[in-house]
Amino acid sequence: MLRAHSNGVTLAVRAQPGAKKTAIVGVWGEGANAQLKIAVQAPPIEGRANVELIKFLADKFSISRNSVELMSGELSRSKVFLLRGVNKVVADSVLTALTN
Question: d(Cα 4, Cα 89) in Å, to the nearest integer?
Answer without folding.
Answer: 9
